[in-house]
Amino acid sequence: MAQEECSPLMRTDHFDAEERGETLAHASRFKWLSKISRTVLVGLLVVETVAFVVLLLKQPSRCVKTCTIPLKSHEVLYSPALDAVEHEVKVYNVGFGDFSPFQIPSSPALDKKWSDLYNFGISRITKEEAAQLPNKTHAIPGDDGHYIAELDVFHNLHCLNKIRMALDPDYYSDWRISTTNNYIPSQKNATDHVGHCIDWIRQSLMCSSDTSVIVWQWHNSLNTSVVKGNVAHTCRNFSKIREWAKDRTLLASYDPSVHIEDDIVIPIFHSNFD
């Protein structure tokens, strides 16, 4: 019984010549359409693959300023100073009553304190270290085998110092900047520099994203809870980073007008200043 029900699907002896001709023609058209469909599909796949490869090749240059590439939580980009990183717990000076040594009036003494934080920050690194950087840097003229570099923390400190100076233009007249209602053409360089520094530090703070937690605690005398900023932070030991940089300070002044060819190739990341 089951075989009789299935037999129409297998039957070949009850078709006349016309039916067989139509069936063969239909089958031929089906094969032809299938072949075209497969050809079109393969063609589309090839086009999409080529477009994807082109996109990948162009992506590094398009990502110079705006691209964000996710990393796993334990991954970091290479830096020659990674070996100097040592973590410690610190509690900040809040600055209201518990003043830090940097909270003194503008003076030569204060200038020296700030300068001592970063005046050694331009470093010389080896070619081996330079070749591992995610961005290409330049060789140092007259110092074979060494390349110029700067840890970003020292640029941040330089920038913050210039903002500090701009906040006291009566003392630092060269750093008086234009304000909303007072444009000072002669101070364009200072105004632009401070604008750059503010936004650079903004980006650096967002990049670092300190997740230490500021808390609120009950104040009996005020009969209210108050914010407490003197909390524990996980920090990188700045003294260790400073020692690393001091050991690699440039031996002589750097001449940026001398171009030196090298064979270092950075295949993925590109400098913003290429």
TrEMBL record:
The protein's annotated pathway: Mycotoxin biosynthesis
InterPro entries for this protein: UstYa-like (IPR021765)
GO biological process, one term: mycotoxin biosynthetic process
The organism's place on the tree of life at top rank: Eukaryota
Family: Belongs to the ustYa family.
Name recorded for this polypeptide: Tat pathway signal sequence
Classification lineage: Eukaryota, Fungi, Dikarya, Basidiomycota, Agaricomycotina
